[in-house]
Amino acid sequence: MTRFADMPLKWKLLVVITGTSVLALALACAGFIAYELAAYRGRAGRDMDLRAAMLAAGGAPALAFRDEKDAEETLAVLKVDPHVIAAQFYASDGAIFASYARADARDEPPPRPESDGQRFSWDRQTTVRGVALAGRRIGTLRLVRDLGEMRRSLAAVLAISLALLLVSSLAALAIAARTQRGISEPILDLTRAAKANAERGDYSARARARGGAELGILVAAFNEMLDQIQRRDAALHDSQQRLALLVESTPLGVIVWGTDQRVLEWNMSAERIFGWSAEEAKGRTADLIISAPVWESRVKTVWENLLARRGGTRFTNENVAKDGRTIVCDWYNAPLIGPEGKVFAVASIVEDITDRKRVQDELQSLTAQLERRVTERTAELLTLNKELEAFSYSVSHDLRAPLRAINGFSSLLLVKKAEHLDAEGKDYLARVAEAARHMAEIIDDLLNLARVTRSTMQPASVDLSALARDAADDLQALHPERLVDVFIDEGVRVTGDANLLRLLLENLLSNAWKFTSLTTAPRIEVRSRVESGRRILSVRDNGAGFDPAFADKLFKPFSRLHSEAEFAGTGVGLATVSRIIERHGGRIWAEGAVGKGAVFHFILPES
Amino acid sequence: MRDKTILLVEDNPDDAHLTLAAFKEAGIRVQFVVAKDGLEALKHLSSAEELPAVILLDLNLPKLSGHEVLERIRSDARTKTIPVVILSSSIEPEDLVRCYALGANSFVRKPVDFAQFLDTARLMGRYWLQANVAAPARQNSP
């Protein structure tokens, strides 16, 4: 039999409601019947007492006079009452004096009278009463009445009560059946919805909403909860999918280990890196698949640190692949902590850096090789530079000596042996001397150019105005016969190498000096101006100028825009100027036109 | 009065010849002693009865370099006050600085142009020998 607790709610409600009403009705009926019984007994007792009193009064003389006939006649009156079964008069000595019995009566009167009072048995009522005359007891009356009437009336009451009980029980059942639906159906609905969601796990089933009372609120809350669960479930699903996609598509190996070092998760990249498939790897420990005994202690330390949450989160290690290759891996490990703060797994992200490491090593060795080579080359260059210096030195000495001889002896011949030479011979000899002198000039200029290139720069603040004035004074001293207007802006200071800047101005000014030699009212200006934040310096002359089409040739060594007959020169001066500007990291450019003079602009970077 | 003496230390015979010719052409009366290398020069200085009024010293010399010769001259009490004029083809600033540091009195670059050589000779004659010579005229080369 089902226990009440296991019964469905619907039955519970039916049992409770119906049972309660039936029990109440039954109790009411029982009370009613008990009352009815007691009331009847009371009524019957009083009735019999009255009747017994009347009989006793009627029978007293007969008893007193011992008249049996009269006594029996007195009792015979009882025939009219069908309910009286039997009656007896006992004489004072206790023997039956007279008696009456209904025809069908089955009464065995006791031989001696019972004590006075009323007695009820199942089917009859016995009343015993003394008979007195003139205050003296002279006998006893016993009256017996059957209780059939009372039983019938009691049976009717009982039948009515039972009928009432039945009808009201049915009514209670009907009402309970109707009302329990209002309570149990929403709950059953909730149960069905909860069960459906739990079984299918899609959280789409909903309970029907009912009214605004407690159950309605419960259902609405339940549905709202389901909505939230469904939304979270969708979000969780979404994020799980993204994570899964990420884990599967990342080039990094993703491995999850149990605390016993067995593989729980093993993504595609881990398969690619180590050669073990997920099926092969799962359930096995690291030392069986990717670790070698040599690294055991190290792995152990890392693992212990991880479980104790002491770090060990990042390290580079050698591992073995399935095919036996040793590979270099970068490991990033993190313990996964459960809600109770205990490590329940370890997640690892692993990158195969074997190739990168090899390239790095190669790069390192190449760099070292390169550095060695640079050192060697530098030494070679230093040697070469020394040789070049020695060469310059010997050029300046050894090449000049024969030139000096040529020029010197030609000159001596012209002076001392002039009488042996005609005009043509003198002219030839003068040309020889001049050629030697010119060649010496070229050599000097070349040596200057070389020195500009290889000398060490010593940057300092330099008074450019003073350098320009010195150069102009030197030129004037060398050519005292010339009248040139020279204008120099005062107080122009720049940062640079003083020796090189001196050479720069000497070259630019001597250039201007030379090309104004055929100009009337020659004029040379050294100016400084600031244009868009930069200082531009310029050396301007009103001399022969140049064809702007050849402006780019100006600064090339040995390129000359004028014939030697017009303006003597080696074609090295402006190349030297350009080289000096270059070494300062500056810029130089020229403007000019034939017959309109020339201007050289240059910029020196502010230090 | 005897002509003053100049000790010319020069290994190149052409240069030696031209130096002598330049002084002669400039009209400076002077006695020349020519040493072909540094050792010869030092030997002359240690043995000569009369010390030269001026020493004209080339730098690029066989055996002992001009710098070494200069150093010896300046370290010898007998010769340390003799004016030494360096006559060199070098245009290296280091040479110039070093010579002055070693006690040279003047540094003259050997000119290729003989006309300039004449000027140089006149200047030297006037300054170092107090010779009565005309001021050097600026001569443009032919």
Quick synopsis:
The complex is a heterodimer of chains A (607) and B (142). Chain A is of the alpha+beta class and 607 residues long.
What general outline of chain A do the C-alpha atoms trace? rod-shaped
Give the CA-based shape of chain B.
globular
Reported CATH architecture of the largest domain in chain A: 2-Layer Sandwich
User: If you average the pLDDT of chain B, what whole number results?
Assistant: 85
**Could you tell me the number of beta strands of chain B?**
5
Global structural class of chain A: alpha+beta
CATH architecture identity of chain B: 3-Layer(aba) Sandwich
Describe this structure in words.
The complex is a heterodimer of chains A (607) and B (142). Chain A is 53% helix and 20% strand. Chain A has 607 residues and is of the alpha+beta class. Chain A folds into 4 domains: 9-165, Beta-Lactamase; 251-352, PAS domain (Beta-Lactamase), CATH 3.30.450; 355-454, Helix Hairpins (Orthogonal Bundle), CATH 1.10.287; 456-603, Heat Shock Protein 90 (2-Layer Sandwich), CATH 3.30.565. In chain A, strands 2-1-5-4-3 form a 5-stranded antiparallel beta sheet. Chain A has a 5-stranded antiparallel beta sheet with strand order 7-6-10-9-8. Chain A has a 5-stranded mixed beta sheet with strand order 12-14-15-17-16, covered by helices on one side. In chain A, strand 9 (326-337) and strand 10 (343-352) form a beta hairpin. In chain A, helix 9 (354-416) runs antiparallel to helix 10 (423-454). Chain B is an alpha/beta fold and 142 residues long. Chain B has a single domain (5-128), classed as Rossmann fold (3-Layer(aba) Sandwich). Chain B has helices at 13-25, 38-47, 66-75, 93-102, 114-129, and strands at residues 5-9, 31-35, 54-57, 84-88, 106-109. The model of chain B is unreliable at 138-142 (pLDDT under 50). The interface between A and B is medium-sized, with 27 and 23 residues.
